[in-house]
Amino acid sequence: MENVWSRPRKAPRQTLTLERIVAEAVALLDEEGVDRLTMRRLAERLGTGSTTLYWHVTTKDDVLDLALDAVFGEVRLPDPAPDRQGWRRPARELMRGWRAALLRHPWSATLLDRPLMGPNALSRTEFLYQTLAGAGFTPPKAAAYSLANYVMGSVIMQVAWERGGEGDAGAFLRERAARYPVLAEHGLGHTWDATFDEGLGYLLDGMEQARR
Q: Within 10 A of 92 (CB to CB), how many other CB atoms are there?
């Protein structure tokens, strides 16, 4: 299936480069979200015509794929594990970095159902597979899926709760504490970072046990 990654890259036209298009698209998405991104508005922000923009990208989907991959490009690749026993550190660092990059651009949470075929996403995924395969998870696919899905799920939940208002949900549960006592006691007041790290620790602990 053809996508923006499989088409030959074109030379700059009238000083407009693909890098500039992507940077402006990310800025627009950060400011206004996915629904407000149109090819016309992007061209206006770039100070160019739609014809020049379409020289580089064919559709809005192209722009979204490029912008999402730019977010993955913000994730620093950790130092590789020195041996089979050291796999948890780079895996943890990569997952933390991935989550942090997505949360810096909350719109990205709405695009995680897209195929992640850009070079930045693939290089991070390659690193994760290498780390897990080197630790003895053979094949590493299920282990990689477990970690990736945990990160994506946590980001989607946090973005949705923060947009919807955590305070309203908390008030709702407190009013129904008699019916849902454990949720009322333990389901409120957490910090997202600490909860993510704790859950990631549980996941890595379980994977370590399965690896032995």
A: 17
- Closest of 100, 117, 110, 112 to residue 32, by C-alpha: 110
Task: For residue 162, name the pLDDT band (cuts at 50, 70, 90).
Answer: confident
Nearest to 116 by CA among 107, 128, 125: 125
pTM here is: 0.88
Cis peptide before 139 (omega within 30 of 0): yes
| E strand or H helix at 88 | helix 88-104
Percent of the chain exceeding pLDDT 90 equals 67
* Percent helix / strand / coil, the chain, rounded to 5: 70, 0, 30
Q: Is 95 helix (H, G, I), strand (E, B) or coil?
A: helix
| 11, 2 contact by CB (below 8 A) | no
How many other C-beta atoms are found inside a 10 Å radius of the C-beta of residue 126? Answer: 11
